[in-house]
Each structure stands twice: as structure tokens, then as C-alpha cells.
Amino acid sequence: MSFFTGNAESVDMPRLTRPAPLRQGVYEALLELIVTRALKPGQHLVESDLATRLGISRQPVREALQRLSTEGWVDLRPAQGAFVHTPTEEEADQLLAVRSLLEAESARLAAANVTPEAIARLREICEGGVAALEADEVDAVVAANATLHAAIVELSGNKVLAELAAQVDRRVRWYYTPVARQRGPESWTEHAALIDALAAHDGERAAQIMREHTEHTRRSYHQRPDKEVT
Amino acid sequence: MSFFTGNAESVDMPRLTRPAPLRQGVYEALLELIVTRALKPGQHLVESDLATRLGISRQPVREALQRLSTEGWVDLRPAQGAFVHTPTEEEADQLLAVRSLLEAESARLAAANVTPEAIARLREICEGGVAALEADEVDAVVAANATLHAAIVELSGNKVLAELAAQVDRRVRWYYTPVARQRGPESWTEHAALIDALAAHDGERAAQIMREHTEHTRRSYHQRPDKEVT
DNA sequence: AGGCAGTAGACTGTACACAGAAGCCCTTAG
DNA sequence: CTAAGGGCTTCTGTGTACAGTCTACTGCCT
After folding, report:
1. What is the rounded distance in angstroms from the CA atom of residue A111 to the CA atom of residue A203?
2. CA A37 – C1' D20 distance (Å)?
3. B14-52 residue pLDDT tens
């Protein structure tokens, strides 16, 4: 009733912190441990062990492992438990092939949807990546790369495609991170060319560049020197 | 030690009936109920209800629902439970687009790998589908269609691609089944042409035919008469 | 009569407990 | 000394119990 209409809805509330399901926290924590190699491929994940470490019961851990299993991060052997998935050469290659397919199509679709604002944002990310590259900050480079690809995929406007691509991309990055250093300058040159094609709304060229780009990644994966390093 | 070396290992056992994890049985049962529309989109799935119906406890049900959630069959709203996913027009279209992409690539790759035996098997499936079509057995037609596509995808030799395509295909069939009747004869004509292309190891033509084929499906989905039926 | 608060019911999220199976080590016989 | 068998430990699979929360209904106040 006051001239100052300060009701509860107008106040900026932090979404009223709901308890946030434990299983999601566990899922994210385990995923982080897997992609950072803290949990090595083939390692046996004991439910009760993880549960006590996290200070919770086995149930949320089980549910998180279920999800990790369906997404291919762990293998759930019946009556034996969960093991961190061991990527094979063949699987990595197939995953890279699928990524190439999905990202190329994303680029093609994105070319039809981009706005000047989107282009500006992409260039910004790209510059951030180049800067990180010159500063030799590997983690930042990888993060910028992921952000850029995610942004392009999102611009495709196809949510199903975006989700699938994100899924595959994460797996690929898991395999690829150890050799991320080798491939740098050319990668970001290609990124710049890709953005140019998108700005010109040239879907075919964007798809072509993206395909070559991911194929280069594929080749650099197979030519990595540390073939058998964990 | 008898002259008849009949030890236990040599006997043809049906894989020694392992207890078969309950969660998988629940998963398959629920998936069947969803795709057959026994569980309608938007319906609230109560854990304890399902558990008592199946004569088990809530745990396996929860785990099955978790998996169904990650695969997009149900939506898991926090503190509210599981609801059968309600497909939107937009999502169906995007899913069909992704299917088109995945299957076209599968066909392209399959063309390089097919053997005469594989071709014979594909033709067999195709003939079975045509026979079912003429006999007006809708379920058999749909099953033959799924089998044929699965066989082609498997011939691609890319397991990751195959798994993704299978996933997407299942979802598409869920949306598409109600209108499967409309599209029949042309569909199997296209199948025959596709097999011809594969037999000729013409990957480009196979991919092209598959793309047109799935695009036809897409169009027939949008032109279906029963737009707002359950 | 309409709206709001209070309350009761129901369902999910989590923890705890027990049975069964798989793997491992130790023992024992050849 | 080697190999096979048995007992033990550990972990998974499943059932049961309890607390927090959301919803819907009912009754009261305006």
C-alpha cells in the first residue's frame, strides 16, 4: 500500500535454495573426478567407500552411478559394481567420427540463425581462447574451446542435437585433454574461419570447415606420442 | 573319467540363468508401457504404486526411472517424482532431423562394409515388411521397419553411432507409431532402392536415399490428421 | 460468496539393515 | 612344490523405515 511497491516478488531472491538433490551433486563430483583422471580408467568404484567419503548413504551414490553408466562414463557389471570406463582406440575413433557429424550439422544450421550479437560473442570467446593459448594456460584453452563449440551448437536451434553433441563432446574431451597442447594455433585459426563463414550465413562452408576442423582433431589424436599413458 | 566326456562345461546351458537385475526388468517393462501408450504422456508415475504392482520394493523402480529420465522417456521433477515425457511438436521435428542425420551417415558407412550375405539378409527383412504390409499387420510392419534400420545402422561398423541411432529411433517410433499406417508402400519402395545402393557400394547414393526417406517420414508426421490425439 | 490460512494426507528423498553372490586367501592332499 | 577345494571377507542387490516437502482439502474470516 505504500508508494514504494516493494513486495516479496520484486525482491531479487536466489531462487530459495532448494535442498538440491544429492544424486546430482554426487554425479557432478564423480564426473569431475573421472575427467580429471583422479579416478583412473578401469578403477573399481565401491559404493560404500564413495558414500562414506561424501558423508552420505549409498542410495544417492547408486543413482549417480546409474546415470554415469547410461552416459558411458562407467561400466556397471552385474553383481560386481561400477568400473570407470576404459576407452579403446576404436571407440575413440568412432566417437570422434560422430562428433564430426554432429558438429558439422550444427554449424550448418547455426549459419542460418546467427545474429550480429551472436557473432560478436563467438569472436569474443575466440579471442579469449587465443589469449589463453599465448599465455600457455592449457585449462583455459580447453575451456574456451568447449565454450565456443557449445555456443555454436546451441545456435543451431536444435535442442536434441545440442544435447547429443554436448554429450559426445564431453567424452571426446576426456580422451583428448592429454594431447590438447599439441594442437593449438591451427585450431584457433580454423575457429576464426568458421565464425567468418557463420557471419556470412554460408551453412555449407561452415559445415565443411567444422568437418575439417574435427577431422584434424581426430588425426592429432591418433598421432599423439603418449599412446599408452593412463 | 568315463569315455563320455560329459562335464558340466560342455553342456549347452542357457547362460546359467543369472538372477537378472530387477532394475533392468523394470526398465524394460516401463518402456514397453510407455511406447504402447499404456502410460500416457504427462502421467504421474508413483514409485510405491509401481513397486507394489510389480511385487518389489521402490529401489529397483527408482533406478529404472533414473535411466528412463536420462534417456528422455520421463521427466524427473525434484520432490515431485517422475512424469511420462510429453513430446512437443518442436521436439519431434528436431528428433526427426537428428535421426535423418544419423541414419544417412550410417547408410554411407554401411555401403563400404556390406557383404553379399548382409544384402541377402536386408532383402529378407524387406520382403517380410512388404508381406506384413499387404497383410495389414501394423505391428509387424513397424517391427520390420525397426529391424531393417537397426541392421543397416549396425552395418556401419560404428558402435557409438549405432547406439545413438537406436536411441533416437526408438523415440521417433514412439511419436510416429500412431501414424504408421499412412506411410507404407512408398516407404518400402525406398527401402528397396536403399538396399540396391548399398549392394552397389554407393555410399553417397545410399546416404541420399536414406536422407530423403527419413525426410518423407518427417513430412508425413507433420501432415498427420490426428494432430491432438493423446 | 470469495479468498486465505491451517492442517492432514501422500509421495519423494535419504538412511539403515540384511541376504546372496563373487573373489581371495589359506589350507590340505597329491 | 603344485593344485584343488573350502571357508572367509567384501561388496552388491534388495527390502524396510523415517523425515522433509508438496498438494489438496476444509474451515474460517472478510
Report:
1. 5
2. 36
3. 434 456 788 999 999 999 999 999 999 999 999 999 999
Distance from CA of A130 to the nearest CA of B (A): 32
Contact at CB, B160 and A91, closer than 8 angstroms: yes
Distance set, CA B1 to CA B4, B6, B13 (Å): 8, 9, 21
The answer to whether B161 and B208 are in contact (CB under 8 A) is no
User: Tell me, in Å, how far CA of A1 is from C1' of C2?
Assistant: 21
Kindly report the CA angle at B26 between A23 and B42, in degrees rounded to 5? 75
Q: What is the pLDDT of residues B159-201, one digit of tens each?
A: 999 999 999 999 998 987 766 566 777 888 899 999 999 999 9
pTM for the complete prediction? 0.87
Using an 8 Å Cβ cutoff, are B201 and B111 in contact?
yes
How far is A215 from A100, CA to CA, in rounded Å?
Answer: 7
Q: Do B66 and A71 touch (CB under 8 A)?
A: no
For chain B, strand residue ranges (E) read 44-45, 74-77, 81-84
Question: What is the number of helices (H) and of strands (E) in chain A?
Answer: 9, 3
Distances (CA, A) of A155 to A101, A119, A203, B169: 16, 10, 12, 24
* Cross-chain residue pair A98–B158, CB shorter than 8 Å: yes
- From chain B, the residues in CB contact with A98 under 8 A are 158, 160-161, 164
